[in-house]
Design a protein that fits this description.
- This protein is of the alpha+beta class and 874 residues long.
- It contains 14 helices and 55 strands.
- The strands form 13 sheets. An 8-stranded parallel β-barrel has the order 43-44-45-48-49-50-51-52. Strands 2, 3, 6, 7, 8 and 9 form a 6-stranded antiparallel sheet that branches. Strands 26, 27, 30, 31, 32 and 33 form a 6-stranded antiparallel sheet that branches.
- Helix 10 (712-722) runs antiparallel to helix 11 (730-740).
- The longest helix has 25 residues, at 2-26.
- It starts with a helix and ends in a 16-residue tail after the last strand.
Length: 874
């Protein structure tokens, strides 16, 4: 029996070894060499590792320097596809510069490892990203091996617009396919399939555009501009485009009216001049397409007879400080020392600078010799800066003569619409100057003092009118009025923000994790839950098609993420949300595209492609991006083609039915684009909400650009107060500035959590979270809930489920219910009744005609006695 057992064991071992040997013969490991060429010394490399799916993304394999700047390592890899990156100095993760293919959610470098050489395409004709202006008979692919050799081992598949094509062998290493020549964009793909293993070992894709039937371009010289004297003016052809979806090849600006100015950059979309004389100036724009077709348009610039008022900053340091240079920094320039450099005035013996600064309360400092940051020694009004120091305060008063509201009571009149501007001040001798936009369908203007009279018999279209007030030799910036005149005639103050957003509770959710389904239908199923919670608007993190989990890397600005469902699913979500009284906010991306977007790939591969002008390129040939987002490729907003594409994307989703846009990375995009964006959107839907992501919050983005912004001051001050870095008064003071420093109607989004921040309960204890939640739902502004916050979630992107913490859910729901039941908490006025920094007690009141609410908050760890001064109704 023992002998039999030994024989069986021997046979088992023999079979096992045989199978191992056979497996190695079938698919033995391949010795693969990774090379990183740093001979140009682009990086200061102390160490460099290669990580990938073969190392579980751990730093197991470190490359060695051969002495010439080339780093390399040879390691055994399984045959097949692999994703990887290089890690420099344990911090910088980069793709392989020598490998053009990349894939996956993080756009890692992609290779197929094989013991035999894999054929590759060396050239395509026409090259990817090309435009065809005349008929070509074929699309040609040139390989680095003979076709006979390739076809012995591999099946060749060629697709155009998802249709498999028949190919012809034209040369030893070249195949050709018939070229579809319908107008517009076409996509192609080539695959090599291993005949034995039925595995794809190589793929390449590209695009081409057909424009055989040329259509005349469209010139857009931009809206009328009204500027102050001694101001730089930038003409704006950013709305110009070619209907054939091709680049405009030439721009030319000419002055055709007004006193002669020195026009610069006349052969670009954005010519400039210095407005040193008052008057009206006219300019003509001419554009050409690649076929030589021309279009023209005109615009107007009105220069007011007075310069814009500036605010003087002046400082004299004590004898111990003798600076060589001084800069002014503050909230108004994002605390950047290179923006406002001061000049020494020998007459006053002071450092001085005068800058444009809107009304408000502005924190500032002086930077001496690039190193010493000091508050103003002559200004006693200071607030703690959160860094054991102080910021000085500059108060710029409002001119109530120039502040006010548009008003009309004639919307229902048959023949005329009358809109009047009513100033906040009753000052005498105010002059009202009205202007009609040069692009209005009818260039007529009927006014009477502060009143505009619009004739409803005029042609349908969008009309813009501007009002400038003059008082005591001072001139106001223009108020702007939009009249949408179609079957109905509706007007709006272009500053006006959507009323519905003032009373709403916003809810931000991640579609992939919000339900077990992880798709749009799952969100639809949860809409009744959100309604019961008290939510009025849902902001879905991006639903664009793209490779990443988070969705902020779109490979298309016009399609839904495949995992989420279809466009019809998204329409159904909007329809059902609207039925329940819930608005839908679209997370809109304008700043960048995924590096896996077909336009990016074509531009990177073909330097002659017109698409190259869509992006910024560094001297080393790599694309531009912000921070460490190397997979998010910045768009070039100096290119009108890009602007037109982004605006079309917004119009597309607006027509699908969204109620607003949360604009990602808005801080990185030029202001003049956002001004155009506002006009385009509000012409379609004046009640569409425009919310910006600008960190930190900045007033410039509310200058006829956005309705609402993140209140980064509120969140930052809350953290500083709770961490003991600022006194309690910093929170109400920041809220005061959110009113004084921003234009009328500006809206704020207030939050304790969002998808970019740690969960608030991971920073502070439960009592603190409870206290701040009560504050969030009782102060002015629009409160934001980040999904899971109502269940006390601790993970950033959890798999959402009900019932995790019912006690907290009940507490949270009551806060929302209280806010909704009280007119004072939704829309009422705000008044601080007590701010006790020493005792850490804050008392404030909200009041309206219907009710009033008094809130008392104790930030200390001890009980406090506080007298209630009012008789609140709630």
């Amino acid at each position: 029996m023992q002998r039999l057992s030994q024989i069986i064991l021997f046979l088992f071992l023999l079979i096992s070894l045989t199978l191992i040997a056979l497996k190695q013969q079938i698919s033995p490991p391949v010795k693969w060499t990774f090379i990183f060429d740093n001979s140009a010394k682009k990086y200061d490399i102390r160490e460099i590792a290669v990580v990938g799916d073969f190392s579980d993304w751990q730093k197991w394999y470190y490359l060695k320097n051969d002495g010439s700047g080339k780093w390399q390592i040879t390691i055994p890899l399984k045959e097949g596809w692999h994703l990887y990156r290089f890690v420099i100095n344990n911090t910088l993760w980069i793709k392989d510069p020598m490998v053009k293919a990349y894939d996956g959610p993080y756009s890692n470098s992609k290779i197929f490892v094989s013991s035999r050489p894999i054929p590759k395409i060396e050239k395509t004709t026409p090259a990817t990203g090309s435009w065809l202006y005349f008929a070509l008979d074929s699309l040609r692919f040139y390989f680095n091996q003979s076709l006979d050799k390739i076809l012995q081992n591999f099946d060749l598949e060629i697709y155009i617009d998802s249709t498999r094509m028949q190919y012809d062998k034209k040369q030893k290493n070249m195949v050709a396919v018939s070229l579809p020549l319908s107008e517009g964009e076409h996509q192609w793909q080539v695959r090599l399939i291993d005949k034995k293993k039925k595995q794809m070992v190589y793929e390449k894709e590209g695009i081409y555009f057909v424009n055989l039937k040329n259509v005349k371009p469209v010139a857009k010289a931009g809206a009328t501009q009204i500027v102050f004297l001694n101001q730089a003016v930038r003409l704006n052809a950013g709305m110009s485009f070619d209907p054939d979806f091709e680049p405009l090849v030439r721009y030319e600006w000419r002055q055709v009216g007004g006193k002669k100015v020195k026009l610069k950059e006349v052969e670009t979309p954005f010519a400039t001049f210095w407005a040193n004389q008052a008057g009206r100036y006219k300019f003509r724009l001419m554009v050409w397409d690649s076929a030589g077709a021309q279009a023209r348009d005109e615009t107007e610039v009105i220069v007011l007879p007075a310069p814009k008022k500036r605010v003087l900053f002046s400082v004299q340091f004590n004898d111990g400080i003798k600076p060589q240079k001084v800069s002014l920094v503050g909230e108004f320039n994002n605390w950047k020392a290179d923006v406002h450099k001061m000049q020494w005035n020998p007459e006053t013996q002071k450092w001085q600078i005068a800058i444009e600064l809107p009304p408000g309360i502005w924190e500032y400092k002086y930077v001496v010799d690039d190193s010493l940051w000091l508050p103003d020694p002559q200004n006693k009004e200071k607030v703690p800066d959160g860094w054991n120091g102080f910021n000085s305060l500059k108060r710029v008063p409002r001119n109530k003569v120039f502040e006010g509201r548009f008003y009309s009571n004639s919307e229902q009149a048959e023949r005329q619409l009358k809109v009047a501007f009513v100033p906040d001040s009753s000052a005498q001798n105010v002059k009202f100057h009205w202007f009609s936009d040069v692009n209005n369908p009818v260039n007529k203007l009927k006014t009477r003092a502060n009143r505009l009279i619009f004739d409803k018999n005029w042609p349908h279209g969008n009309y813009y009118y501007y009002l400038v007030m003059e008082h005591d030799r001072n001139w106001s910036a223009p108020q702007k009025l939009l009249i949408n005149h179609f079957e109905e005639t509706e007007w709006m103050d272009l500053r006006k923000t959507p009323d519905w957003a003032d009373t709403s509770v916003f809810y931000s959710l991640f579609v992939r994790k919000f339900t077990a389904q992880g798709d749009l239908k799952g969100v639809i199923s949860e809409l009744p839950y959100l309604k019961s919670l008290g939510v009025d608007a849902i902001w879905l993190l991006p639903v664009y098609d793209g490779p990443t989990e988070h969705g902020y890397a779109p490979t298309s600005l016009f399609t839904i993420e495949k995992d989420y469902g279809s466009l019809n699913d998204y329409r159904q979500l909007i329809e059902e949300a609207h039925r329940l009284g819930i608005k839908v906010i679209f997370d809109f991306i304008a700043n960048h595209l995924s590096d896996q977007h077909r336009f990016v790939k074509a531009a990177a591969e073909n330097q002659k492609s017109p698409l190259r002008s869509w992006f910024y390129w560094k001297p080393d040939g790599t694309w531009g991006y912000h921070n460490d987002w190397d997979t998010l490729v910045n768009l070039n907003f100096n290119n009108p083609w890009v602007r037109h594409y982004i605006l079309n994307s917004a119009l597309y989703w607006l027509n699908v039915g969204v109620d607003g846009f949360r604009c990602d990375v808005a801080w990185a995009i030029p202001h003049d684009f956002w001004k155009q964006f506002r006009r385009v959107v509000k012409e379609v839907n004046p009640q569409c909400l425009l919310l910006n992501e600008v960190l930190p919050r900045q007033w410039m983005f509310h200058d006829f650009e956005f309705d609402m912004s993140y209140d980064t001051d509120f969140y930052g001050n809350v953290l500083d107060v709770l961490r003991g870095q600022k006194p309690l008064s910093a929170i109400p003071f920041g809220m005061e500035k959110s009113v004084t420093n921003y234009p009328r109607y500006s809206q704020v989004l207030r939050y304790l959590e969002n998808h970019d921040l740690p969960r608030f309960n991971t920073l502070f204890g439960k009592k603190t979270v409870e206290m701040m939640t009560k504050i969030l739902f009782t102060v002015p502004g629009t409160p934001l809930i980040y999904y899971g916050q109502e269940y006390y979630a601790t993970k950033m992107r959890p798999q959402f489920k009900h019932g995790d913490n019912e006690k907290w859910f009940d507490f949270f729901k009551k806060r929302i219910k209280l806010r909704k039941q009280s007119e004072a908490l939704k829309l009422g006025g705000f008044q601080n009744l007590l701010i006790d920094d020493g005792g850490k007690v804050w008392k404030y009141a909200r009041s309206s005609k219907e009710d009033s609410v008094e809130v008392i908050v104790n930030f200390s760890n001890t009980d406090k006695k506080v007298k209630i001064l009012r008789n609140p109704t709630n």
